[in-house]
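Revision sheet: structure tokens.
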Amino acid sequence: MIHSSHAQSVTPITTQSNHLAAPFLPMSRKEMRQLGWDQCDIIIVTGDAYVDHPSFGMAIIGRLLESQGFKVGIIAQPDWQSAEPFKVLGKPRLFFGIAAGNMDSMINRYTADRKIRSDDAYTPGNKAGKRPDRASIVYSQRCREAYKDVPLILGGIEASLRRIAHYDYWQDKVRRSILLDARADLLLYGNAERAIVELAKRLDAGEPVDKIRDIRGTAFVRKDTPEGWMEIDSTRIDRPGKVDKIINPYVNTRDLPQCEIEQSNASSGETVEMDAEDEVQILHIEPRVRLDRSKTVIRIPSYEKVSKDPVLYAHASRVLHLETNPGNARALVQLHGDQEVWLNPPPIPLTTEEMDAVFDLPYARVPHPEYGKEEIPAYKMIRFSVNIMRGCFGGCTFCSITEHEGRIIQNRSQGSILREIETIRDKVPGFTGVISDLGGPTANMYRIACKTSEIEAACRKPSCVYPGICPNLNTDHSALTQLYREARQLKGVKKILIASGLRYDLAVEDPEYVRELVTHHVGGYLKIAPEHTERGPLDKMMKPGIGSYDAFKKMFERFSKEAGKDQFLIPYFIAAHPGTTDEDMLNLALWLKRNGFKADQVQAFYPSPMATATAMYHTGRNPLRRLSYKKSAEKVETAKGERQRRLHKAFLRWHDPENWPLLREALKEMGQEALIGSGDMQLIPAEEVDERSTKRYANKAGVQKGRLLTQHTGLPPRSKGGIKRPHASKPKPNSIKKGQRG
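Predicted:
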């Protein structure tokens, strides 16, 4: 467990052994009466259907609060057109807990091309349109209309990823903190079990919500920096030319006009330096004083600044991601107009005992009876799966796990996991003996951590496995291997599958784990995500090179052969990720054909709020490095226009005849006409190929819908310098013409 010197309180998670659990948390007055309740203490409003299962946020938080003795009700997917549906359970005694659901409501409703989805996996019958856009904001407004004096507490992933000023892909602009738009009293970010229990108990004891300012993992509006706190100014970065004079960090920068900030200078006996670790300006007073992190807040550029200045937006993103380790993170503050949004440091990760307590709660493990026989696809997908851990130290820039769950792995005990498998076997309808997954955010980070807690608490790296595996990381998979062996020995369990994403660069460090996985836990196909083959986009993703995939593939095939099994890898790739050029996508397409892969579906980069890759997409800058206004500063090329995004996806589906016209046009513009034709060394056929020839071409390439191809396509290995041209020809500019990128 991470230990921190921060003053914010840390409440251990415990459950009351004598509490009386409801069959389901009530969704109606009738159910409340059956439980003997006149009033709920807490009402959770959620954008998902209520499934009483630990894979659903409302169930975890609701059951945990119930275990503390609170009466908890659920309002699931209410009609948001008026306040009346928000009064269905009456007025809560303590607060409304509001969440958009297991997904950001905008990602849930819109595709990466900003088109409205026709379904919603978290809704009965897979029906779309059961939640509003920006559900957290709308639900908060309606709850305030219903009972204006009841505290509003925001939570869930939508709130987590929008806790500061953030780029919004759907409006193509920077929006302010969701806390202000929702007019909530408090925002809980990350996995909030510890915070929600402490908050409920303190409100129950009569403490006003506007006085609760010391709980980790919370955000709130604060008028001023409190007395006794040190403030570090990180609202600007150096510009070319004369170095800006540095203000005194003991002064509240919010109270200084900009001209005074520019003119401020350290007095005699003071020295100024840039903190190389954090890239913030620090004033040192002789004798040098070390800042107390528990009483230090970093002021990041204001909403008004980041909404207009891409460099400052990228800088704010970089600072936020540097302050994510609960062992050393400091508070952040961001000015929005005349209001200060204050973020306390991240929550302390749960111990194994606390994780067990959360997952051992008496979940019904099925949807609420109100839904009858209507199927909820998200539940169907996870009903036979078991979450064994939380968090991810991979740090992939396009992923939101680190911002929400953190990079420190929180593990359940083997006993708790095995008990849950037995519960599924004995209680979940339709169980046939197959556990669909033992995993979490990743398949194979269970019980993997830093070699010492001291190093872990001090580390500020965004990833433990990029650009290579950290020498301080213990990569021993033996605990996970033992868990697999114990799980498949349970009575009534026929098969344990692994469906979570495998971190294959970690897996190859433990061949015995790979052997165990391949021999017993692959159902014919194993999905992994190299994401790309080219170093440019991979560096922007913080992903390993394709060589790691090749090493794992050899190991996978060797152990499959030893087990006498015909098994295949299904690699996943991303199109249009920041840092990806048209040539990168062409090289990936050639790799796919050369290795006999055909993608049935493709994934385009989706700029989710607050992700590092989203900052790259919006700003064209790289927050993984120091930011600068210099002309020589690194720029990040990103496919933004509709045509270029379609092109990048088309390269992933090079075998699809519908994409050939666009690919032919692009290849000509890129000077790669030699790749057009029906030869083994060419990517797509020429225009004059008739329908019969097209079918022969597809068969020759080994294209079969929906499956991995093993037939080699005959393309020669790519040369070291990039694309290998079949014959010499004068190259043309390797880009789509200006004005055609969208």
